[in-house]
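Our consortium's second objective concerns turning raw sequence data into structural hypotheses that experimental partners can test. To show how far this objective has progressed, the report includes one record in full. It was chosen at random from the queue rather than selected for favorable results. The single chain below, 775 residues long, was entered without modification.
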Amino acid sequence: RQKAIVVRGAGVGRRSVCHAMSAAEALAPAKQAIKQQAFYMKKALDQRHLRTALHHAATMIGELRTSALGPKAYYEVYIDVTTELRHLEEFFEAEHERGRPMVELYELVQHAGNVLPRLYLLLAVGRVFLQSKEAAAKVVLEDLVEHCKGVQQPLRGLFLRNYLLQCTRERLPDTGSDYEGEGGTVSDAIKIVLANFGEMAKLWVRMQHQGPAANKEQREKERAELKVVVGGNLHRLASLEGVTLQVYTAEVVQPLLELIVSCKDGLAQEYLLECVCQVFPVAYHTATLPTLLRFLSWLSAAADESAILSHLISRLCALEPADGETEARDVFTPVADHVERRCASLRLRPSLALALALARLALEAYEAHTEYLERALSLASTRLESLGVVTEKRAVAVVQDLLSLPLKRKGGDVLYVLELTEWPRLVSRLEPDEQRRVVSRLLREVAGRGCVISDPLRADRLLVLCAPLLQGDSSPAAPANGAETANGASDRSDADGLDAELAGEMAPVAAMMHTLAHEDTDAEARVLNAAYKHAAAAAPGRLPHVLVPLLFRFLQLARRVRLAEEGGATLEVSCGKLLAFVGQIVQAVTAAAPNLALRLYVQCAQVADSCGDDDGAYEYLAQAFTLFEEEVAEQSAKLAALSLLSAALPHMTSFSAEQYETLARSATQYGATLLKKPDQARAVAKASFAFWPLAGLSPHRNAQRALECLQRALKIADGCKRSGMHAPLFVEILDAYLWHYEQGNDLVTLAYISSLMQLIDQHVAEWRSDWQGGP
């Protein structure tokens, strides 16, 4: 079936002609031939013509002698052949039940002409021979393993030995099996599996040396596809019931590691050692750790020792305390010692990956021993010391994972990282942007877990770490339009320049401010004062985002202090001191965000009023009006500010009649000075609410002043006819009239309301007439 075809060599751009079939062309005829020969074999078996059946079986198995198939296609042919061989095995079982000696069949199948078909037939008979127990299992197994050496072509030999493993899987002289005793011991089973494993490893390594150098990449790919076939021996070895910890230590680990190291091939050593780490219990690795680490030092230079160590450490993370013990056996120290010795010869990223694996081991197996975590972090920090700031992307990603790992600790306070010497040092090895990401993650954990920061020293340490977030980008280069400036601000998105993107970045800091608390008011004041020292040093554009949440914490504290003072407590920090201090905070915010500062002054005034400090409340509202006059420029912001002041004033009860009258009149007067008449009308109408608070809310009611505001608003609205805004304004003012009427303002009578409604109806009728008549 072979014919000349054109093939392209892997890694070269030229074509060569060879007499070999492509995998696609060879697979279909091979499967068809197997199906045909299997049919004749089964037909002969039905007629009990054994020699004829063996002839067809050998011809069928001969399809496995091809060199035209890759591992995947060869596997398909192998599966088809071994599936059909089950019929032959069933015939051998039937012959044995009829009394035919298995030795006779064992010798008969060895008359096949070709080596590969002969050995497959020998394994098929050997399976039944073992089951018959006519000979000791270890003798038959040793003979089968020795016969398989007759095939040294790597692909064929690997699948042949895989069939050997398949046929003998349940027939090894294992502890507790039917084949133990006269058939051998578990030591014999171990030797047989190790012998088969050693031969398969040699065949697997030999694949890389067959063929031209140009095809090496393709051969490596094929080798990777076959690694599971080789690793199957290790799975079988680990599944032996007799391989206890004592047996593994005495008979398995040393010869097994010797076989792996003798491969002298990087790919083979990496995969096989990873298999060893995975298939055997963690307790076995703990008991033999010195031996395993010693063999790791003897690996080929092409083997990635860091990957093997990382896999081993990850496996050790599942270590649990022995029965009757409170903590697991210390395997961290010997592993860390080995890693420290090897890190000097490793590249940056592999050494950082090992530090990450050690940190995971410290947290998962030895959570109470923070010194182990400290040592893992120190390993990474020391490795980075000579490099300064880390910029390589993959190394940065590993450092980020290493810093994030302690934050995922299940139990305890996440702020324990502040007590670690190496964690802040490692953070400092990152670029500012990366530092901000790490610190933001820490702050989110603090807020998300409901942590309470009640120690000024701990608050100070945390805010020192927050410096990259507080200062922003300190680069002297001027940013492009729309980019964040050096002081942390970006192009303004509102009247104060507080954009949503920066607010989102600073949100973790703001949330952290609300975790600063203490049961004792004086102690809480000290914690908040420690935070203020750092917050006040923030970049101007970032200042409002950190000072505002801190301001509200001070206002909450002021209410608590006032209650304590009313209860007769003697305190170091009084309510008056706190209310005076919050004014300094608002002044610091004013330069960066005057509109926000105005609202904060109103908030401070309300707290001062609730604490009975009428002078303080009056001063803060006076400051708010001053800001309105000097700093607020946009008309929409002016209207919003006056609306806020008019709404807040009726809720304050500590003012004298004179103070209240002055403030309410100021709201009216400033409303009449707005640039746009519609805004004037709305502001003056809202000022009327200040002169007629809700019943029981404030004692300062002036029906005449309220009516004057409403009438003045109507007059201003009437002057908006040219812009067409008068009718909508009349409706808004009517709503204010109705509110006053419902709240019992005697001067706002039905006559005023009826007259205003008629005026609105008139204007609406005129509008409809104009709309229907057209211009």
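The partners drew two points from this record. Confidence is low (pLDDT under 50) at residues 1-21, 475-492. The first helix runs from residue 23 to 46. Both points have been shared with the crystallography group to help prioritize constructs.
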